[in-house]
Each structure stands twice: as structure tokens, then as C-alpha cells.
Amino acid sequence: MAATTALILASASPRRRELLQELGLRFEVMTAEVSELDAATSPHLEPIELARKNAQRKATALAEQQPGRWVLGADTVVALEGRVFGKPVSLDQAREFLEALSGRTHEVITGCALRMPNGEEEVFHEVSRVTFQILSDKIIRRYLAEVPVLDKAGAYALQEHGEWIIGHVEGSRTNVIGLPMELLGRVFQKHGLL
Which domains are delineated in the chain? Predict the structure, then answer.
């Protein structure tokens, strides 16, 4: 891939960067300065729409700053029975999220938007189902003490002591971490990026 067409990952997430590196694709990371939509500001949007629109907003913002480049935007949301669990604003809210998810199965949705050098865009998403173990107060306290949860949708991370809280994952595990790598690989192949 020529230097002028190198992929830009429009995300500050170290987890997304690590996942993308596994493809052996050359890319650079830039943060999209956009305000994300959330359930409070956009209650009319279903969780899938929310993830897709946020991914589009990130990709569009950077594509406008870096014309003629490939740009990948992504957004992950956690949803249970229509309620969206974003990034908690405090440890108290993180505790409330984990208590609400305890013993239940929720969806993790990652929306992706791939902006092409010609300005076209492909938007896609993946849904995984995650079942939490029944969490005791002791486990929740331990998890919150060990894992920095304030930058994580749903206040948890599969890759950081997930075995303490997660019983089962149905679907893409990398999607739960932040990028649906199987789907992303197919999209990249279709467009000649891989």
C-alpha cells in the first residue's frame, strides 16, 4: 500500500490498535475529535444504529481532515434489553453496570465505518452475545479494583480478568474486545487492503 493510501484507525483505543496489528496491515492511529452519540442524547436510536452512527462520525471527521486516505472508524456498545451501557462516568456507575449485567446475557455491538480514498463508505457491524456469571459483591469489588473500567463500554473488558465475570461468549470474541476481526478481514480483502 502506498504511503498516501495507508489506513488511518480513527480510535484512541489501545485494544483496537493491538487487534488491527494482528492483520499485519500498515496503519496509523489518529483520534477523531467528535462527540459520541449516546442513549441519553439519542434515545430514538437502537443500539446497533448508535454504534454504526458513532463509527461513521469518527470516520467522516478524519476523512475530512485526511482526504484521499482509507479511514476506519469503530464504536462498541453494550446493550441489555434495549438499555445501552456506555462508558461509565464513575466507579459507582461501573458497579451499577456490573450488577445489572450479573447472571444475564447481553449484546456487544461494534459498528465499523470504512471510508475509502474516493469518498465512498462501507458501514457494517457485528453482534456478539456475552453471558455474565452471577457476580458477588466481593467479585465486583475485586474487578473494579484491578481493572481500569472507566474507558470501557459496559464497565468491563473480556481481555482483562474476563474469566472472573464472564461465563460464555457467543460469536466473535474480538468483537467484544473492540473490533470484529473476522468480518473486518473479509471487508478489507474485498477492497484489496489485505
Answer: 3-190 (3.90.950.10)
Beta strands 83-85; 166-170: pairing state: unpaired
What average pLDDT does the segment 37-45 reach?
A: 81
Task: Using alpha carbons, list the distances in angstroms from residue 168 to 7, 15, 50, 105, 132.
Answer: 33, 20, 25, 9, 7
Which sequence positions are flagged as catalytic?
Answer: 75
Mean pLDDT over 61-82 rounds to: 94
CB 77 within 8 A of CB 39: no
Q: Which residues contact 184 (CB under 8 A, 6 or more apart)?
A: 23, 72, 112
**What is the pTM assigned to this prediction?**
0.92
Q: Of 156, 149, 151, which Cα lies nearest the Cα of 131?
A: 156
What are 161's strand-pairing partners?
Answer: none
Q: How far is CA 23 from CA 20, 94, 179, 181, 185, in A?
A: 6, 32, 12, 9, 8
SS3 49: helix
Cα-only R_g, the chain? 17
The arithmetic mean of pLDDT across residues 133-154, rounded, is 96
